[in-house]
Design a protein that fits this description.
By secondary structure, this protein is α/β, with parallel strands linked by helices. The protein is built from 21 helices and six strands. It starts with a helix and ends with a helix.
């Protein structure tokens, strides 16, 4: 009788393939009997018809959880949470997925939401892994004073910082490949500087923001520095440690100070590495201090308290899905560029640059590249480093540096695995299930 139900549903769908309720019923039957592959096919088909179908997304999340594809669960449920469509079951499997992915802080935050909605909820796995200690009280039971947490009797304020500003001596010719990216940056940044009066005639300011995103090790930082070198501009690299401070209000002042330094030294490329750490989604934040930093960041990008003409803001992130959507508003990071792993032509140029002035025989780069599928620029450097290490072992015994050969690089390629695979596994889920604005279309094109 059970198989007959499935066959009856399949026959009905053959007559009405766009009947989504029937497909959901069939997928549910498959899921009930553990036929995960068939269930996934049906849920995916429903999403092809309706990309926002809640039941289909819930079904896929359930299948991914059973199969141990936890990043897929996290992406789907996070999108449902943003739309206020996540059921308790979805939040629970997402919290468990976060635990198993070692994202304990995110799991704890989600579990707190579950308990807020259902104070009597219990789950052995989550209870054992997610402790929720309180750090708000001292040994006497008194709350700490955020303004003076250790009772030193002074008001916290920002220290003067001497940020390292440089004039890079590299340019686009030193960047292997990335021709399309260079063209986009040329149009957005270089051309306006070279033709400032022409742009002014159309009311266009010289400056703006570009967000570079993609897997780690693919040259986002190097490309930003080369951009500054291409236009002979000052370059300031800003990390999270340059901004965030333990004292209330100091982080916002640090952010303002950095922009003020850039305004005094235009043209200036202001580069924010791991910008998602500074501009994480405000809706995900538990404390107000983080939101204040983001609001200050947005205010500085808008030039509310100063003229940003001549400031070129570049941001780099491996996780654009964690960036607050407000940063993508026109006038801020209004151009978003996907920085993929290098293609074969780019790989050859990168290897030539890395191998320059190193002792080597004539290298068959094309043969080496055949064994570097999915490699990033950083992976290529790691490949060469492995080959050098083997040569050094011999040189330390003989005292004579031996040249690196094609075979040495091929042997190293067997030992080094591409670091971009894990990133694409996560990015694919966002591109498939959280891409209403089309921001991740380039990821899908690259994967295909």
């Amino acid at each position: 009788m059970k198989n007959q139900d499935i066959e009856s549903l399949k026959e009905a769908i053959e007559s009405s393939p766009d009947n989504l309720p029937l497909r959901i019923m069939l997928a549910g039957k498959y899921l009930h009997f553990g036929k995960l592959e068939e269930a996934e096919t049906e849920y995916q088909t429903v999403l092809n018809y309706d990309s926002n179908h809640i039941k289909a997304k819930e079904g896929l999340a359930e299948i991914y959880f059973r199969r141990g594809r936890y990043s897929g669960v996290i992406v789907i449920v996070e999108e449902l949470i943003q739309r206020n469509k996540a059921s308790e079951r979805m939040m629970v499997i997402c919290a468990k997925s976060l635990v198993r992915e070692k994202s304990i802080e995110d799991a704890q935050e989600l579990y707190e939401k579950i308990l807020d909605n259902n104070p009597d909820f219990e789950d052995k796995e989550l209870d054992e892994n997610l402790r929720m200690p309180s750090f708000d009280f001292d040994d006497e039971g008194e709350e700490f004073d955020d303004e003076d947490p250790f009772g030193f009797g002074f008001e916290a304020g920002p220290d003067d910082k001497d940020f390292f500003m440089e004039k890079p001596n590299i340019s686009f010719k030193d960047v292997g490949g990335m021709e399309k990216l260079k063209e986009e940056i040329d149009l957005k940044i270089i051309k306006p500087l070279e033709n400032a009066e022409l742009y002014a005639a159309y009311g266009k300011k010289v400056g703006g923001g570009i967000l570079l995103y993609g897997p780690p090790g693919c040259g986002k930082t190097y490309l930003a520095k080369a951009t500054a070198g291409e236009i002979n501009a000052n370059f300031i690299s800003v990390g999270i440690n340059d901004i965030l401070d333990m004292w209330i209000g100091r982080s916002e002042k640090n952010m303002g100070y950095i922009f003020e330094v850039a305004r005094r030294n235009t043209p200036c490329v202001l580069f924010f590495d791991e910008v998602d750490a500074l501009g994480a989604s405000r809706s995900d934040m538990k404390n107000s201090s983080g939101r204040h930093v983001i609001n200050q960041f947005l205010s500085e990008l808008d030039g509310v308290d100063g003229n940003n003409d001549g400031i070129l803001v570049l941001g780099a992130t491996n996780a654009p899905w964690h960036l607050d959507p407000a940063f993508r508003r026109p006038g801020r990071f209004d151009r978003i560029i996907f920085v993929p792993p290098p293609d074969d032509v780019s790989k050859e140029k990168i290897l030539e640059i890395i191998m320059h002035e190193k002792p080597k025989e004539k290298i068959d780069f094309k043969k080496v590249i055949e064994h570097t599928k999915h490699y990033s620029g950083a992976d290529l450097k790691a490949l060469v480093d492995l080959a050098i290490e083997e040569k050094l072992k011999i040189a330390l015994r003989t005292g004579i540096p031996e040249p690196i050969t094609t075979q040495d690089l091929l042997q190293a390629a067997k030992r080094h695995h591409a670091s971009t695979r894990e990133w694409f596994n996560t990015a694919k889920n966002y591109a498939l299930f959280a891409n209403e604005s089309g921001i991740y279309d380039e990821i899908l094109k690259f994967i295909k």
